[in-house]
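W.,

You were right to be curious about this one. When I first looked at the sequence I had no strong expectations either way, so I just let the prediction run and decided to look at it fresh. Below is the sequence, 667 residues in total, followed by the output.
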Amino acid sequence: MSLTYLDPLMIKQPTGINNLSAVNLIANNATINSLSAINSYTNKIINDTSVFGNLTVTGSITALSGINFVQTLTTTTSSLSIVNVGNQIGLYVSQSPSVAPVASFVGNNTELLRVNNISPDTGKPVVIIAKSPTGLSLSADGTSNFKTTNIDIANIDIANIDTLNTSIYSVASLTSTNLYINKGIYLPTAGGSVYNNAAFFGNLTVFGSISALSGITTTNTFTNQTSSLSVVNTGTGPALYVSQLQHPNGIAIFSESNGNTILKINNSGYNLPAITVNGTISATSGTSNQWQTAYNVATEYQIASGTFVKNAAFNSYKTDVSNTTATFVNNAAFNSYKTDVSNVSGNWQTAYTWVSTNLANATFTSSVSAPSLSGTHYGDGSKLSGISTTLPSDIASDTAVGAITAGQVIAAGTTFQQFVQTLLSQVYYPTFSVPTASLGSSIGSVVESGTTGITLTVTLNRGSIVGKTVNGIWQSGTTQDYRSGAATLYIINGTNNGTNNALTSSAAIINDGTNSFTSSVTYGTGPQPVDSKGNNYSTPLASGSLTPSVNVTGARKYFYGTSASAVTNSAQVRALGSSTLNPSNGTTFTINIPSGAAYVIFAYPSTLRDVNSVKYVEGLNAEVKDVFTQTTVSVLGLNSYPGVNYKVYTYQPASPFSTTATYNVTI
């Protein structure tokens, strides 16, 4: 059953209610005096309920937004167990500014741990831990014995430490913003880590090795006399990087124990060699002696004037020129040409000798006259009769032969040359794509109602003639030309825009629903298509026009977020932290609620259904939509565009949220 009271519910001094069972108990203000027992409920929702006596719950208490205790809470009958299944802090303790501590933990009447307040500043440590042989003790006598896995403290100041019991000192991880140690001590940590900044004002002795992941900086000269320095790089950067400020003393010096410098790397800008070596340089592919030999050779072959260097190839050319008295240099290619000319002239000489020898027996005529012929003749000059060199009539092929297809007609008057070309050479024809046009919007297709200003742009695709002969070969996929001519006139949204394809209208207003914009573009006559033989094919596309259009939808937004006060007007709704365009039934969104929020609010147009669901993520996705109240507010569009009614949902907890929360909303 359901027991529902819309008005305040008052139950006074019942002697006992042993079994009150209800599916839903809902009361706006319920005051219960001396209620001894409420044994069974299912799905309880009670708004602003006060219990002036004792409240006994045999099950568990779930508080979606927190539990507040006005007075001290004391329990002596059983333990307090906190099992956190969310991603927030398991136990959160907050204390108003006071000299009283934030928390105190007592065992067997002995205080083991105290957490002090930091405001006002009493001079006391933030954390006090009782002295224990196996615990952590920070006391006034200066001794510090601790054994733990991790220590995470904002600032540790360890001063005047005289003794340290290393036998019980074992730290796996020490995290501190600033760690100050004034005296030289040993830190025999068992594989642990020191995080953030640590300053050692005395000496630091490390029994293992030091690894610096981002670098080691020393402000004074670093000297090591006890052992060698080894750098083993396991990364991808340089193993050793040395940088020196501008100074003539150099970047690095490598010397023997007796002080003799072996290698010096100098800074630039001081007229010094980059590298100075005292001795020879040895390389796997050569030695410094080879460099000296190369230097000596270069010096030996240098002409005194310094203009030219002795070169074997150049000397060869010089010798050729010296040995040749003719105009041309002795050259293999030139000699080849000379031999060819010589051989040819010998052939001419042979021909001349033969003619001279046989001149007495030769008969020559001074001229030869061709007979005057007309028409078509045989080789002996006799005339052909009854044979035509062109087709006298059309001939239709009844079979496919070569490039001639079945049914193809060879026209009368076709010459033999033309017939052979038709037989052996295929003709290919282009294909066409028609011109198209589109109208584009600068503001997109869906915007908030009340948006002003738009730029409309017409894009003409002139189509194409596809198929072209390239280097004598027909390329069926190569574009030959446009199918249409260029644009000659644009009319956009009723405005004659000449040959400009874009129009901006600053006064345009996007209303609720569909807003249509129209245009037209006129194009000229297209080019003449040709086939693979270069002959005209089909006809040019005649001039014409296209009429593209575009629709822009004006829509409303939905708003959501948190507020310090209730929302009662359009400006307050639009001021909520988040908004998204064009909601519909089933739209989902997430409200991230910060700590301290006093109101949680979301709103959307009243044309949509009531809210379907509000899930409290940190509360195991509990359904909490019923804690919201619904009101109606008229909300304006963009730029004060006329308003429409919105459903506004508001939740005001009894006190502001003490921690962050997440609500997933489904319209």
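Here's what jumped out at me. The longest strand covers residues 147-158. And, maybe more interesting for your project: The chain has a mean pLDDT of 73.

Coffee later to discuss?

I.
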